Hints:
Elements: H1 11-26, H2 31-67, H3 71-120, H4 137-177, E1 182-184, E2 187-189, H5 194-214, H6 217-240, H7 242-248, H8 251-291, H9 293-303, H10 309-326, H11 328-362, E3 365-369, E4 375-383, E5 389-398, E6 403-408, H12 414-422, E7 428-434, E8 440-443, E9 452-453, H13 454-459, H14 469-478, E10 491-492, H15 494-497, H16 500-514, E11 518-522, H17 530-543, E12 548-552, H18 556-559, E13 564-570, E14 576-580
Amino acid sequence: MASARKPSLRGRSLARALWRLIRIYWVSPDAKWGALLLAAAVALELGTVRASVLVSQAQRRMVEGLESRDPQAFAVAIGSFVGLLLLFVFVSNYRVYLRQLLEIRWRRGLTADFLSRWIDTKAYGQRQLHGGELDNPDQRIAEDIRDFVASALGLSLSLLAAITTLVSFGGLLWSLSAGWQLPLRGRTLAIPGLLLWVAIGFASFSMFVTHLMGRRLVPINFDRFRFEADFRYGLVRFRDHVEQVALSGGEGVERLGAVDRFRRVVDIFIQLVRAERNLNLLTGSIGQMNSIVPILVAAPAYFANLLTLGMIVQTRVAYDQVSGSLSWLVNAYREIARWRANIERLAAFEDVMDATDRELEAAALKVVPAPAGAIRLADVRLETPTGRVLVDRADAQLAAGERVAIVGEAGAGKTTLFRALAGIWPFGQGRVERPPRQRMLFVPQQAYFPIGTLRAAVSYPDAEGTFPDSRIVEVLELLGLGYLAPQIGEVAPWEQRTSVHEQQLLAIARVLLHEPDWVLLDEATAALDEASERKLYELVLARLPRTSVVSLGARPGVLELLPRRLALTAGEDGKVVLRAA
């Protein structure tokens, strides 16, 4: 689903969005363990920088040992260098290991929060409210959160390392070039900390031109994530509906749709490649030019015997470290661009969920617990998301234990009323009182089957293992599905392995297993013939004598089994109302 892209977040709005995302995990109960891992990762990051300083000093002693032709000093320097190098490798690897441990804990906490707000609060069912602003929520939860956390840790720790490196090697570079005497027209010129100022100037110029060249990467990455997810979602949807497509002969349309979605992926990818090519040409050229700067600056002093070769080697190492730290923004620009796109997508997702929560809370149609365990509709009016009235007035009371049929012409609003009773249709006004949701079972025309075994599919919405296999097999045999019993532990796409007729029978199997206080069926047996449908209702009514049954859209054979009837009919003014039939 395509969505309109909102203006990019900048300045304070970007900072607020970033803070909202960061605080989700860092105020959670797991944050104390995350803080310990972060402190250890920071310590190792600083240790890596310190080890780099010591390694550079060992390199200088090695070169000076060679230059002075002193085998003993050279051997000592080699031993020191090897030991420091091993320490550097150890510290550097454990720095990455601890960062990855923190990354998975942070991702787990952030994902759990988004899943809870998206699923538990039923925000998923209200996409009609903000459909044009939210594309591919699955990708935002799975991939954007992963990339956001990885970049947040990677960028922050690399920035810390860059600052520490700048302080450590900046002081070293200042001291090394503090007293440089540069020959100039027969005289010598001394500029305190010469190479440090050169590095700062070069890095400032690099950051400025990199930002000018690379700022287009943020909107391009935002659209790339969206188009990639649209293309993948289309392929998954085709896979899940191959039979319907084949029966309709719609392969050509599906192929053209997939090709069109992939064309958008290709177009945005070409834009990304071109933008990154230009940025790479710029940063690569700057990097190569910068690598020879300390040699060019030091060469005249070395030729005038004012510097040793070892000093030049250490100076170049220090300059490279300082220059690299000052060029942090240049080197991290592509990742920052992707990270900003992640922030904008997750912030927009949060905005939609927050807005949906507020709108559901302020909705004029209220669903509240029934004081006596009955269902009561009080002046209920149902509308479409655009405000068109579907049911103008519904007033009714259904007592516990009743068997009720709600009838009406096609399009009269039966399914919308079913959704309102389930609490997933907020559009309208009035009051719906109902028993606790956990003691009610809503059975739609098309059953949903989770990924897993047949046992899990029949036990849904309870977890697999809630019901013993012997009871599940008994219910399957009652419904004429005994031939499926040997496959009860098999993991398969059951929506594709079973017919619509079998799927509706499996949905009724859930009713017999759960034995709810209330069961509401919205044309849940429409795929059966009338005789089979009647026998099925007779079975449910006999096996669940204390269960209240409400059927919407039942056929004549079933209506005889449900003594009370309510009808959705048009009144004299043409508006649909719910009244006794």
